[in-house]
Specification:
Elements (H helix, E strand, L loop, with lengths): L1 E4 L6 E4 L3 E3 L2 E3 L5 H7 L7 E8 L3 E7 L7 E7 L1 E8 L10 E7 L5 E4 L3 E7 L3 E8 L8 E3 L34
Antiparallel strand pairs: 1-2, 2-10, 3-4, 5-12, 6-11, 6-13, 7-10, 7-12, 8-9, 8-11
Length: about 180
């Protein structure tokens, strides 16, 4: 696997080695030894999968305090714009974000360390999205930042009129209100 550093410390893009032939393809989506050597130690304890349609924006979600989560995210089929926002107090990149297009075709993954808000927009007709977490989900520790925060000014690559949000995601505070 190739690890590509981003402008935000700790957020990396991972390109696995994909072996393909006329039957299809094969790749390791996670190898603990290689991940630890190239990214750092992590112990994943929960895997999640979601299916969404074009225009859905999920996020920007995070877990607070001792329930913070690092995530390794990827797309099985379809395409998303995946976004990580640095919420680490004292970080020189606090409030900065990195976006990466993840698709079932490019097989790219993004590792998002603890201390980040995370979200994605669905760019394809449909997407199957998977992610590994290093901490169990705790509803009482849930936090979020508004997807359309004007200070962040994230280009989700979907016209605002086409954005589909959950009822909960319609009411998150802006970053400065945290």
């Amino acid at each position: 696997m190739e690890v590509i550093k981003t402008e935000i410390e700790g957020v990396v893009v991972i390109e696995p080695k994909v072996f393909g032939d006329d039957r299809g393809y094969f790749f390791e989506s996670f190898n603990e030894r290689e991940f630890t050597g190239k990214v750092g130690p992590v112990r994943f304890v929960q895997d999640n999968e979601s299916k969404s349609r074009y225009g859905v924006v999920r996020g920007l979600h995070f877990q607070k305090g001792e329930f913070a989560q690092a995530k390794l995210v990827r797309v099985v089929s379809g395409a998303v714009l995946d976004v990580a926002v640095d919420l680490r107090e004292g970080s020189p990149t606090y409030g900065k974000w990195h976006a990466e297009e993840l698709t079932g075709e490019n097989h790219r993954m993004m590792f998002i360390p603890r201390g980040f808000a995370h979200g994605f927009s669905v760019l394809s007709e449909e997407v199957v999205f998977q992610y590994k977490c290093d901490n169990l989900y705790c509803p009482a520790a849930e936090g979020a930042v508004a997807w359309n925060d004007p200070v962040l000014a994230i280009d989700w690559r979907i016209p605002a009129a086409d954005v589909i949000l959950s009822e909960k995601d319609k009411h998150h505070p802006f970053l400065y209100e945290q």
